[in-house]
Design a protein that fits this description.
Structural class: mainly beta
InterPro entries: Quinoprotein_ADH-like_sf
Distance between the termini: 46 Å
Radius of gyration: 24 Å
CATH class of one domain: Mainly Beta
Number of helices: 3
Protein name: 40-residue YVTN family beta-propeller repeat-containing protein
Organism: Rhizobium hainanense
Largest sheet: 5 strands, antiparallel
Number of strands: 35
Shape: globular
Keywords: Signal
CATH architecture of one domain: Beta Barrel
Amino acid sequence: MPNTRSGILLAASSLACALLFPFPSFADDENKTESWRLFVADHSRPIIRAIDATSGKEIGRFDVDGYAALSLGQSGRTIFAVQGEKNVVHAIATGITLSDHGEHRDIELSDPKLLQTSITGDKPGHVVTHGNDVAIFYDRDDKFDLLSESGLAEGKPDIRSFQTIAAHHGVAVPMGNHLLVSVPNMEAPVKEGELPPRLGLRVLDRKGEQVGEVKRCTGLHGEATSARLVAFGCEEGVLIARPGGIGGPKVEMLAYGSSLPKGKVSTLLGGTSMQFFLGNYGEQNIVLIDPDKTAEPFKLIELPTRRVDFALDPAKPQQAYILTEDGNLHLLDVVKGAIVKSETVTEPYSKDGHWRDPRPRLAIAGDLIAITDPRHGLVRMVDSRSLKEIRSIAVEGQPFVIVSAGGSGAMH
């Protein structure tokens, strides 16, 4: 039988020592800090600027080959500048590294820099990261590339190519030991110079072998990850991929149903701390998607005018922000499924014209929403609670696409 009395004495002695000689607190020898950086692509010139969100100062300027769409890696360490018209993807190290230590998180800061390795292919389109995997899809080639984000930072990305049946405007998503890849419709009539439409989704293993049958998803466009789920927009509904066993992910269709008007989802965002998706549904509606509600997974939310951009708040999972063409910013309560506040933040920006005309874009940086205003050469910093502008950052040229990287942690 264990000596309970000795155990009590030892515990009491340990407690006394702790009271007399307290263990050092992380707060005693560490400096808690929060840092956010904005990466802004110019609409008229092949330039990407890195801006400190607090001071508004430019801390990096990177010349690239052409017009760049920006994508932030899941780790927050890498920005991917996709230049489809120049057949190249450049990578920029954000200079912010967050590492988890259980009871606290560390943050390391360094200068942002353009990485030496660039990835080339015939019209790169979607870049999707999951963990350390980066998938780059090429619209005018019958392949996508899979590489390592950490290897890319070290100049050794370890690029592997996978076949996509035929060139098409599609996407590839890493998911555990499998890859989710769009499928072109090879039987559809296609005019000369055009690409075949999307027919559905297939699952590949890491050897490139197909697992199971093709899942139908007509006109597949738009993808997002929430928790362990991946969603794709289709004409029939939203396709949901769930982690599976040896047979690979389980893929199922959430049909739109008769309660929704005619339309479809083609852009998706995925919740972080809460499992849900937010998608467009035409230009003047959005839908909240609960993948576990089999009866009515979609909740339609009508907007006053057409949507220009929208974003989810990673730190406040119940909040989303929608900018409409009348210049108003709307706060959506995801739990209530309703817009609860609206404020004017820019002049009106009509959705008429070319889809790539310079219009505002949103990025979340802590408690602030950064909104590009290309007409006035500004990034407007808006409080996420009041939706009021608290200051603006002057940016040379036409600031257009924007992403943010950062967070809070302890600096040693």
